[in-house]
Specification:
Largest sheet: 6 strands, mixed
Shape: globular
Helix content: under 10%
Number of helices: 2
Length: 350
């Protein structure tokens, strides 16, 4: 049984942990060329792109002061994966929980985070976020079951990338000239909003990679040559460790994996993300679906090219077991079958 002094000590400990984290964001247009092929306008923050990470600790109050300086578009921010219990007006979807922030106006997001894990934030104004307004949201956990079991963290974002801006593409996508609803195919894939990314590592260390698919459309296969990943978190839920050679991330999905580096530092190792081309109605002859990066053990050693694969064999995430031990729901008494189909309306608005 807890004494009054014990309860008071616990309360004071919780209060002492919590902090107020404040971000001031001016949302602006900047020019970027992440795939090295086509410079284009992107939506940045405070005159920069890629946009900054949001970081907080479980229990923190987060305040994001947003000023829309785009001039020609409204905007908003959505904090993807957070439940927003009690603060749904801070969730960001325009037309659902808030009005858009018009050009020249400001909005204050104010909420408390009680979920640990790997998340991301992005615009929720129509199709705006693939134009650049998306970035990692990392919530650290003093009580993580994996605390002390790794040496360092790395954040790795994966995304598809389009050369055209979203308003132009949406006019063609939702159009009578596209009656089947064929989605636009990306021009490239990116790691951390660039290509040919290098990640310096040290030997005999355990790294936790927080991997986020911030893409608009494409699912991504991901693997690290010569290394096995131990999955420990998916979408903010801790899991029992599960060994994987390859994982599959749908758009918006997040994984945290532990990677143990080798003792030998003479060789660098490639890691790859490959867009799931089964999602594309057509595959342009010029498309390179892969983006490549390297675990760099020795900056003077060669950066090898990825090996060719005969097939993709990602880890079966249905076999993951959450660490909380919550049992499965019991079998249902009644099953109601539903048939879902894509009905072609022949007017491009299906």
């Amino acid at each position: 049984m807890f004494t009054t002094s014990t309860i008071l000590a616990l309360c004071l400990s919780t209060v002492a942990r919590a902090a107020t984290v404040i971000y001031d964001f001016n949302i602006t247009w900047v020019t970027a060329n992440p795939d090295g092929v086509f410079p284009r306008p992107v939506v940045g923050i405070n005159g920069q792109w890629p946009i900054p990470y949001l970081t907080a600790t479980v229990g923190d109050q987060v305040i994001v002061n947003v000023n829309n300086q785009l001039g020609n578009q409204s905007t908003s921010l959505h904090f993807h994966g957070l439940y927003m219990n009690g603060t749904t007006d801070m969730d960001g979807p325009i037309g659902t929980t808030q009005c858009g922030i018009p050009p020249g106006a400001s909005f204050k997001y104010n909420f408390t985070i009680d979920q640990p894990g790997t998340y991301w934030y992005h615009s929720h104004e129509t199709s705006q976020y693939p134009d650049g307004l998306r970035g990692p949201l990392i919530v650290t956990d003093p009580d993580s079951p994996y605390k002390g079991k790794y040496d360092e963290e790395r954040v790795l974002t994966i995304s598809d990338w389009y050369h055209d801006q979203m308003p132009n593409m949406m006019r063609t996508f939702v159009s009578v000239v596209n009656p089947t609803g064929a989605e636009p195919v990306p021009e490239a894939a990116l790691f951390n909003d660039t290509q040919n990314l290098t990640t310096p590592v040290q030997p005999d260390k355990i790294y936790m990679f927080r991997i986020i698919n911030m893409g608009a459309f494409a699912g991504q296969y991901f693997w690290i040559e010569g290394h096995t990943m131990q999955i420990v978190e998916v979408d903010g839920i801790y899991t029992n460790p599960a060994a994987a050679d390859m994982i599959y991330l749908t758009a918006a999905q997040r994984y945290s994996v532990l990677v143990t580096t080798k003792s030998d530092t003479s060789t660098n190792f490639v890691y790859v993300a490959s867009m799931d081309q089964d999602l594309f109605d057509t595959i342009p002859a010029t498309l390179n679906p892969n983006v490549t990066g390297w675990l760099v053990y020795d900056s003077n050693a060669d950066l090898p090219q990825p090996a060719l694969l005969d097939s993709f064999e990602p880890f079966d995430d249905f076999t993951l077991v959450p660490t909380d031990g919550e049992p499965l729901l019991p079998s249902s008494d009644i099953s109601v079958p539903l048939t879902v189909s894509m009905i072609n309306l022949n007017d491009g608005a299906n």
